[in-house]
Specification:
Two copies of one chain form a homodimer.
Chain A lengths: L1 E8 L5 E5 L2 E5 L17 H20 L6 E10 L7 E13 L3 H15 L1 H7 L3 E11 L1
Helix pairs in contact in A: 1-2, 1-3
Chain lengths: ~140, ~140
């Protein structure tokens, strides 16, 4: 399978992007000549990672009958100091919300996403050291 | 330097993402349980690549006094057949538009982006075979 995306320059550092599922603007920060009219390109990789593992986990938990009430996934990436600046350390924080959370199934779902299903995680593993944290917020 | 992004699950396969420079929705295709209400997470990596190298090239061409009238960058990524599905082959097509395009400077800018400045390209190189094409569209 092949994915194709297109971008068109819009002046200064602004680009329009036609990606899978929609169009959006990409722009740089004002400190580097941009106008802050769109998303920063590099951090899109971190949202790609969160979305990919998040979808895995939601569908795995559904199959396992271990649904949660809410899920937030926060990702941070530490860049190298020198050019080309890459994410050398990436941390993924999974926050699960609900009543009587089935922690064993949640942890199994995360492991399956990390080891087997999440292609973005697999790509990140080739250049970054990845760590994770799991947080549970249980209602009574 | 550290980048941080946050995502919040919105039901089904839909997530809200707060990334650098803005917020947007991530969703899966209807064929895999999504509702097509947002961007596909994996392809965001390809737009990240286009935006990163595109900004490099625009700012390098400005410094070199070799501005162009327009620039489109198209990226395609071929996925592996097996899980975890990663982009194994990535092709970047640069399309430059203008009068009397300074091709030597354009090619130097692309090379500088690829070899030195584009962090996203450097990350991609760790898991994909990257090829490029340069197309020139000159006005008379």
């Amino acid at each position: 399978m092949k994915h194709e995306i297109k971008t068109q320059w819009q002046g200064n550092m602004l680009f329009n992007a036609d990606s899978l599922g929609g169009s959006f603007k990409i722009d740089a920060d004002t400190s580097v000549g941009g106008q802050d009219l769109g998303l920063r390109p590099k951090a899109l990789m971190l949202t790609s990672l969160a979305g990919c593992t998040g979808m895995d986990i939601i569908s795995l938990l559904k199959k396992m009958r271990a649904e949660v009430e809410n899920l937030n996934i926060n990702v941070s990436g530490e860049l190298t100091d020198e050019h080309p600046k890459i994410y050398k350390k990436v941390h993924v924080e999974y926050c699960f919300y609900g009543k009587k959370l089935k922690k064993d199934k949640i942890e199994k779902a995360i492991k399956l996403s990390q080891d087997r299903y999440c292609g973005v995680m697999e790509m990140f593993r080739q250049f970054a050291e990845i760590t994770i944290t799991i947080k549970y917020f249980e209602n009574k």
